[in-house]
Each structure stands twice: as structure tokens, then as C-alpha cells.
Specification:
Layout: H1 14-17, H2 37-51, H3 57-66, H4 71-81, H5 90-96, H6 105-113, H7 119-127, H8 132-156, H9 161-165, H10 171-181, H11 186-205, H12 211-224
Length: about 230
């Protein structure tokens, strides 16, 4: 009576199959989603309070950015930082922790959308044991954010990440996104997002073990959509 059976189901018809798991069948269906940026910040804040860690929200966002928005890694970094008794600023954090690897998602997406070679970065991504769907979803989120930069730039003739995203990006990252935003229009965004949806479907429905080659070919295809 005190035991539970948990089934983790991955498929295109997941929402339809959820109807099988109902209270009528002595079951429940639960869907999980990757947390949004503000949710990750909230989780980090709660952990900081538990640890008695004196840190600003800006510094929390910096830790997440340093670790490519990997919440688990960022939470672990808080454990390390909790031994530091003073208020933590960005410079101190950079001295005390290092990013999860040399692979930077933001830098990778920037190079990808600038139609630069991404072969070596893809290799590093898979060496870290990352998931290809995570990569595509992260890229989709990046592109959607970039659309907001483009719209804001058209309205105000400048970009301001604080106004657009609700938090300030490091200056060099903001400048890179601005450089992309002024080049892209709605047609390009539509082509990129459509190609991303096609790529995700292909990845999920293909049983090939050569996921690295498959994701690489998909990303190169996306690059062809950019003028």
C-alpha cells in the first residue's frame, strides 16, 4: 500500500496516453517542464536563504549564466560559496567558481547564427554528455529572446537587455545579441523556428545512434536559412 510505480514516458502522443493514467485507474499523470529563468532564480534564492548566503539576484543570474543555466550545477556552486562569509559580488564569484566547461551555449548560438563552423563545439557538447533535445530547446529559447531584441531595436533604435528580458546581460553578450538582432527579420525567424521544429521531430522519431551527426546536419540546415 505504501509503494508506487512510476512510468516515465517519452513519445509524440504523450498527452493522449496521459488519459490512461487517471484516478479511475488508480493512477495520476504528471508532466514536467524545464524551469523558466525566473523560476530558476527563485529556486536559487530559496537555497541561498537556507544556506544563509548573502548574495544579490544579479549575482545569482551570473552563476546561472556561468553554468549555461544548468540549475543542478548552479545549486552545487551555492554549496561551495556558502563558506564565504562576506557579500558575494560578480568578481568574487568568478574567482571562487568556474563555469561547467569551456563550452558556452551563448557563444555557440552566436557562432551558429553567424554561420561559423560549429563542428568542434558540437563535439565538446556531446563529450559533456548533454542531450540533443536540450540543445534544440535551448536554441529555440535563444531565438525567441533574439526576436524580442529585434522588435525592441525597431521600436527604440537600441537594445536594453534589462528592459527586454527583465535582467541585465553582461555587456559583451548584450552587444552580440544586438548585432544579430539588427540583421534578422520576421521571415528569417520563421524559417529558423520552423527548421528547429522539423529537427526536433526528426531527432525524436529517428532511432539512429549517430545523434551527433544528425544534430550537426540539422544545425547546418538551420544555418542555410540565414541570409
Amino acid at each position: 500500500q505504501n509503494s508506487f510505480f512510476v512510468l516515465k514516458y517519452h513519445a509524440q502522443d504523450a498527452k493522449e496516453k496521459a488519459n490512461i493514467f487517471t484516478p479511475k485507474n488508480s493512477a495520476e499523470s504528471v508532466r514536467f517542464f524545464a524551469p523558466e529563468q525566473y523560476e530558476m532564480v527563485g529556486i536559487m534564492k530559496n537555497r541561498c536563504d537556507e544556506l544563509g548566503l548573502k548574495i544579490t539576484e544579479h549575482a545569482i543570474r551570473h552563476i546561472l549564466l556561468t553554468n549555461n543555466n544548468n540549475l543542478e550545477v548552479s545549486i552545487n556552486e551555492l554549496e561551495k560559496l556558502s563558506i564565504y562569509e562576506n557579500n558575494l559580488d560578480i568578481k568574487t564569484i568568478d574567482k571562487l567558481i568556474q563555469g561547467s566547461s569551456e563550452f558556452s551555449m551563448d557563444e555557440f548560438f552566436y557562432n551558429l547564427l553567424n554561420k561559423k563552423s560549429i563542428v568542434e563545439e558540437i563535439k565538446l557538447f556531446f563529450e559533456r554528455g548533454e542531450n540533443e533535445i536540450f540543445l534544440l530547446n535551448s536554441l529555440q529559447s535563444y531565438v525567441v529572446q533574439l526576436m524580442s531584441f529585434t522588435i525592441y531595436a525597431k521600436l527604440y533604435g537600441k537594445v536594453d537587455s534589462k528592459e527586454i528580458l527583465g535582467y541585465k546581460l553582461p555587456q559583451h553578450i548584450e552587444e552580440k545579441r544586438a548585432s544579430l538582432a539588427i540583421r534578422f527579420n520576421s521571415k528569417i525567424y520563421h524559417k529558423i523556428l520552423s527548421a528547429l521544429q522539423e529537427s526536433e521531430y526528426l531527432i525524436k522519431t529517428t532511432h539512429s545512434k549517430e545523434k551527433e551527426l544528425l544534430i550537426l546536419s540539422s544545425l547546418i540546415k538551420i544555418q542555410t536559412k540565414i541570409l
